[in-house]
Amino acid sequence: MTSPIVQETKDGAVLSIHVQPNASKTECAGLHGEALKIRVMAPPVDGAANQAVVDLLAEQLAVPRASVSVQSGTGGRFKRVLVRGLSSDQVRARLRLPSSK
Question: pTM, whole model, 2 decimals?
Fold first, then answer.
């Protein structure tokens, strides 16, 4: 069974993310239900929070920013983010997420 947080696709791994904008610092903050919680200092205005999520994930996963893109949820807190070039197992390992059950 695959983890609902990270799913394997033909294009790469898709992460389920819950974003908290206007936080005191930008960080991965553990799990929020069946999503990875990410706090970002950026406000949810003009795509700033989405860009902060992309920047953080690219850094944490050691991939180019161009390999990380928001696939859905650009206007809300819940997002699905595609990471090209990594498998779901690699994403889970680099983010220290629990393995698939």
Answer: 0.92
